[in-house]
Structure formats: C-alpha cells, structure tokens
C-alpha cells in the first residue's frame, strides 16, 4: 500500500457517520452529499481513511468494515470480525503497513496488512474498555486510553508499556499527540484536559512524558481532542454543545465554536493548513468552521440521526 | 362464530389451508381428492343431515375465504417462508462479496524480522514546512459568496441507502424544466415519514443539484400531481395536500408542477431565495459548453420524436369543428371526423340563425375514396382547405380502374367526372392539423383514387408545360 499520486487521489474526502447506520461522503465546498453507504446492524463509532485514500474504515459494534472509495459500491468490501464489543477507534500506520484498533473488549489490536489477506498481528490487553487509540508520529508507540482513566504507552516493537493516570475515577475519552511529537493531550469525562510534554527516546528508548499543564476545558464531558497539523492549536469537543480551540503555546482559548441546538459535538478534524475545522454533532449535521473568525461556513445536512464520527483528508499543494 | 365450534368445518379448513399454502405440492399428493370419510364426518358434525349430505357435501365444508386467486392459477402464491428464504439468499449473496477477516492470533509469535519490518521508528523532522494553503481552503475561498442551497434543510428526508427505516420511491416528472429534461422522471427515494411539502423540498434539492442552472422557487410554489407513467400530469385531481404524510398516498408516479396562483402569504423575501447562477460555480462552468450542444441534440431528437408521434396518431379518430363552404360561398358549421377508416361530415344544429344558407346532409366517405387534401387559401379570418374525393369509389370500382388504364382520355374531362371536392374553412392551426393528418393517412394507404388523382395532375401539368413550349 504505497501512496500513489494518480489523479483520483487529488481530491478532498470528507466522510461522516453516526446513529442512522449510514456513511455519507460530501463535496466539501458545496455541502452536497455525493454518496451514501450502508452500515448495517450498527452505528458508526469511528471513521478513518486509509493513507492511499482508496478505502474508508468504519468501526461499529463487533466489527470494522472497509468501504471502497474509488467505486460507488454502497456495501463494504472487507469485514473484520472476532471482536466481542464495540470498536471505538481505528487508524493506520502512515505507509499502510498495518491498522490499529481499540475496542471495549479491553484491548487494542494491530492488524498486519502486508500480505494480501490482513491478519492478526498483535494484541494489547487493558483492564478496562478502550475508549481511544492514537499512534505516536514515530509510528512505533501506541497510546491507548481506557475507561478506568489510564493512558497506556505501548511500544509496539518491544511490547514494553507504561501507564499514566492523570485523574482517578474519570474515564479517558480521547488522547492525541501533535504531529511534531512534542506534546500529548488527553481529555476525560469531567471536561478536563491534560497536557504532557514529550521527549524523544534515543536508540529505541521509550518516549519520556512529563506532565505539563491541566485545565478545565469544558463544563461537561470532553469527547475529543485533536492537535492541528501545524501543532499550534488544540481543539476539544464536548457534551456541553461546543468545540473549543486552544493555542498550544499557552493553552489560552482562541475560539469557541457554538451553534444553536447543535447538541453534543462528537468528532472533529482540521484542514491540513489548520485554517478550518470540521465538527460532527448530535443535531445530525457536520459543520465547517473558520478557525480565524470562529464562524460556521458550511453545514452538511442529510443524516437522519446524530453524526458521531467523521474522517477528513485534505490535499496540501 | 358458529362455524368455529363445528369440528368438521375446522378440520376442513385446516386441510384446505394446508393445501393452499404448501409450496412443495406434496400435501396434494398425499391428501389427493378424497374428502373426510363419511362416518367420521357424521360423527363430527351433529347438525349434519345425513339425507342430503350428497348434495351440499362439497359446498358446506369448503371454507370460502381461502380460495386461491385466479391470478395465481399458474403458479402458487409464495408463502412467507419462501419470501424469507429469498431474502436470506440475497443477504448471503451480498455477504459473499464481502471479504471476512477474523481476529485469530497465530500461536507462533512474530519473528524478529517481522517486527523490524512492521515497526520502524520514524524520526520526526523538526521545523517541518508549514503548509500555507490547502486545497480545501482554496475551494472554500473560491466560493465564499456561494449562496447556500435554500433546500438544504430537506436533505434529511433522503431515503436512499437507509437501513431499517421505511422509505418510498417515486418517479417524479419535473414539468417546469426545459423540454429535454421534462420527459423522463427523476427517481426520488424519501423517508416514509416525510410530508408532501418536505418531499417537494427534497425533490427541489435534488433538482437544484442536477439542473444547477435552472432557477427554482420556494417549495410552497409547487404542487405534486398524480401523473401517468408517460409523464402526463393528471390535472383533474387537485395536487396532493402538502401537509399530509407521503405514506398516505399510494401513487408512485408524480408530477411536480409550479402552481400558477402561488399561495398568497409568500413574501417578497422568500421569492428572493432563488439559486443564482453563480459564475464561480464550478459545476456550471465545467459543464456549460458541452451541455449546450447536448441540449441542441436533444431538442432535435425531440422534434423527430414528435413527427413520429403524429404519424403514429394520424389514423386515430379525431373530430374537428370546421366550416364547410359551398359553391356560393355560404358557410355552415360542421363536425369533421377523421380516422384511418373514413371521414365523416356531420352538420351542427344552427341555434341562432332562423334560416340556413346551406343544407348539409351528414355524409361519410371511405378513406380510400379520398385523393387529395391541401390548403387552398390563408386569410386573416381563417384558412381554407380542400379535400378531393372520388364519388365513384366502391360501387364503381371497376370503372375507376378502367380510367386509370385509359390514358388516351381527355384529362380535363376525367377530372370533372371522377373527382369532387369539399371546401372547408377553419382557424389556421386546426386547418394545418387536419391537412397534415389526412395527408399522413393518405400517404400510409396510397389508395387507387390517390394514385389516379396524382397521375391526372401530373398529366395536366405536363400538358400546360407543353402549351408553354409550343407558344
């Protein structure tokens, strides 16, 4: 799976999914739904586009499904199963060598992609349902957040792991590392956000994490946190019906993204130049926001129920 | 229900139900023909009169409510089981296209090479180049003034690719579009809970994305009418109540029609929300030039289709109200009926005229007796046209054929003898239509009378030419 630069790949992809058992692909600048795919039997928990932009991974209850982005097939082409509970997170190694997933059956998994039929490669067990998984940009350390409030740093090469517990009896809901690999952020169900500064491990040593900052980001549970591609911003979304953009230099609030009756804001994605943000919310809309002005610029209407997951791939010239 | 305590009736009912719903047909082989044994029947049915049992035996115990429809005579009605089996089969077929990968950790752990191959530590470059502008930003900036589609709120009524909720599929004819797009339906799938006005909004949304350059009005300006499969809107019925749920109506073919008398409460503001033809709109600019050519081609095809259609319809009976003009230029209104068989002239009762100039009797001519039809005069008051016929057709068929074979006869004399004509007058459009219709029929049939008439005319012309040359 090598990223090729054919013309088909020169397009922006925005996919959304949620409780209405469908996945929609949008034309981002007009807000028109280009395609709807069926996600039978389950809500969509998380979405991710493969590095080669050929497929879309959608996770649901007990499975991960792959949809072909190149064709107009409304049904999945690959179905990954053997997981007993909800799959909460999915992602890919940057060259598409393997896929990682996190699930409520207390485990994070690595699926080997090198052969024609992907196979099970590695599993990491935790003591609580996994709520989020995030790959460190060095491509060998996986951060796994769980419901008991523990963040595990799992070294895929050595299987060495470390645990961090920022706060007792609060579920970690999302973890993210900035693209430069200098900061890690985690949010919990009490609306608090924790920041660590990371120092590179030399010669295979694990990354060192030092608590740097903590702040109350939201009044209610914080659902997602994500660093901008240029590492200067952090966005957090919450059950308090807002998304907030923070500057990473001093973690001061830059924008509050609010819309009447938008309800829970579940998922978020930055454009590759960090100028725009997409959000997915319970009002059934995905929205596009201007980071500089904090105003909503587009609304993507078409879902019957709450939109809880989105995936976005931008083109950087 | 008295029948329900009748054991015999129940037994009979069970037998019949079983036979009628058994798809395998085995039951019929096993329970072939025979009814219940007589002694058993007597025991079960205490009210049965043993004497007249022979007469009504078959009738009285046959439950009439499970008679099979005559339509299903050829094949058995499918039972629920068969339907379910088919659904399962379809699901299986669909599933066969999906590759399933199960999580199975092999007992052999990954080798060191595998691990080294899979997990390569990547050095993160510091000071990575900052991306100034992504494609998304570019596109958004390019259409900053793009007005939001006014129908976007209706997007949620989209029923396509929905799983587990009821949806409805419609063929919608869009009567307000240009002709080339008007004659084929747009397939719309909406959720069954939508109201008619929401369905209209959703149709307009889809319409605006497909036919981006056509200005549309707010949803309240349109009505949905019952429509034939060929797109002919049935105006006899009022448009569907916009406040009603779509599920209430069973029609699958509808026509979207712009209401002439828009509802009075439509404010000026709302009528401004029309999709503008934004020059920046990529969709438009990309397709514009080829679309124009395409449109031309389509219009040309449509024209051709129309010609074919009139030719096809020509032999169908149609009646026109025209004036017949007699030799002294007096006019009388008549019904002119034209079909592939004959033409009929029926006088209309003159209501307010005390006396009539013309006494026209009802006449009928076989279509093969007609020879010619043409427009003779076009005035501002109306157009005159002439129908030439051969009065000798039918009863003197032999004489007509003789005249054809006799070229030596004087043509002028023959014309006056063999052909007569009627002169009519009607408004321009009607006259043209009638002439076209009659000529199409005549061309189709090319009767003896017609050939003869044409031959005569040619001879006449030829003679005239000769006269000119001789001069």
Automatic annotation (TrEMBL), chain A:
One of its GO terms (biological process) is regulation of actin cytoskeleton organization. Signal peptide: none annotated. Keywords: Cytoplasm, Repeat, WD repeat. It is found in: Cytoplasm. GO terms for cellular component: cytoplasm; TORC1 complex; TORC2 complex. WD repeats lie at residues 1-36, 80-121, 123-164, 215-247, 258-299. Transmembrane segments: none annotated. It holds the Pfam family WD40. It comes from the Eukaryota. SUPFAM superfamilies: WD40 repeat-like (SSF50978). Belongs to the WD repeat LST8 family. Subunit of TORC1 and TORC2, which regulate cell growth and survival in response to nutrient and hormonal signals. This is Target of rapamycin complex subunit lst8. It comes from Ignelater luminosus.
TrEMBL record, chain B:
Belongs to the SIN1 family. Residues 18-43, 47-124 form the Sin1 N-terminal domain. This is Target of rapamycin complex 2 subunit MAPKAP1. Gene3D superfamilies: Pleckstrin-homology domain (PH domain)/Phosphotyrosine-binding domain (PTB). Residues 42-61 are annotated as: Disordered. Residues 316-443 form the SIN1-type PH domain. It comes from Ignelater luminosus (Cucubano). Residues 133-261 form the CRIM domain. InterPro entries: CRIM_dom, PH-like_dom_sf, Sin1/Avo1, Sin1_N, Sin1_PH_dom. Pfam families: CRIM, SIN1, SIN1_PH. One of its GO terms (biological process) is TORC2 signaling. One of its GO terms (molecular function) is phosphatidylinositol-4,5-bisphosphate binding. GO terms for cellular component: cytoplasm; plasma membrane; TORC2 complex. Transmembrane segments: none annotated.
